[in-house]
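Researcher: We plan to redesign the surface later, but first we want a full-length starting point. Tokens attached.
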């Protein structure tokens, strides 16, 4: 479902749906301890899912100890750093995966 050909998805789906599937695959990668692949999928999910996916991630990061993450719906280096830090906190990241 997430296959791409020359950067273009092979299967058509709404961006928010693609973001949710990417986030689920990132969760699988975490279980497999493939953190680089998980980080890449999460970054793609946030980029594809737009403002709704970013806001969901920001809210959940704030609820899980990342109070300095702004709730502005904008992708930022601060958001990416918080997500990376969250990879090490198993409980934190599972909450994000369920919401996205």
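Model: Full-length starting sequence:
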């Amino acid at each position: 479902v997430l296959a791409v050909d020359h950067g273009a998805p092979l299967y058509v789906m709404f961006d928010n749906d693609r973001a949710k599937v990417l986030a689920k695959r990132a969760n699988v990668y975490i279980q497999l301890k493939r953190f680089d692949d998980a980080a890449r999928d999460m970054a793609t999910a946030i980029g594809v899912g737009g403002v709704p996916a970013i806001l969901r991630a920001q809210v959940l990061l704030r609820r899980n100890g990342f109070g300095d993450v702004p709730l502005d719906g904008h992708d930022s280096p601060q958001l990416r750093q918080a997500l990376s830090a969250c990879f090490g906190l198993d409980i934190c990241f599972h909450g994000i995966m369920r919401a996205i």
